[in-house]
Amino acid sequence: MKRLIDFGALFFLMLFTGVFVGTWLPISRYISDLSAAEFLKFMQLIINSTAVPMQIIMPTGVALAAISVWNSKSRTSRRFYIAILSVALFVVVLVISLAMLVPLNLQLIHLAPGTIPDDWEHIRDKWKAIHTLRTFIAIVGYAGFAWYIGGRRVVNQGLSYSNPTSGRL
Predict the structure, then answer these.
(1) pTM of the model
(2) Residue 58, class by beta-carbon neighbours within 10 Å (0-12 exposed, 13-18 middle, 19+ buried)?
(3) Cβ atoms 166, 160 nearer than 8 A
(4) What is d(CA 13, CA 60) in angstroms, rounded to the nearest whole number?
(5) d(Cα 80, Cα 97) in Å, to the nearest integer?
(6) What would the pLDDT profile of 27-81 be if each residue is shown by its tens digit?
């Protein structure tokens, strides 16, 4: 069961982080080149495509990661504390999403090309900055959690990074 929880946590956190990176890459490079109408259409497409799946993926990933860490046998290792930090980072990502991006998304989703506010560039820049921050926090969180799971598997199998005679990696 532990392996299934670990796999599920890695899988959902990968999806979680991947959606952020997948939207961040085109946004960071080209969003400033879009007209107001193009920006609105682009954002509505992204929001409509990701909102419902992310409502499932995000909390599932965080919950499975928390369960995985809770079930850890080694509570004094550096990996354990990195795993706790990783879960905390994903909680921060959830808070940023719910407190900052969802309100902006709701504002954007209800606009029509004729109702775009004059300060749309400010909204765009704010969305881009928050999304960039959230994406990089998720990347760091995923890297830490993957390191925790990968290292835990090595330790549980009696292998060691520091002892070359302990087994093959």
Answers:
(1) 0.85
(2) buried
(3) yes
(4) 8
(5) 26
(6) 888 888 999 999 999 999 999 999 999 999 999 999 999 999 999 887 878 889 9
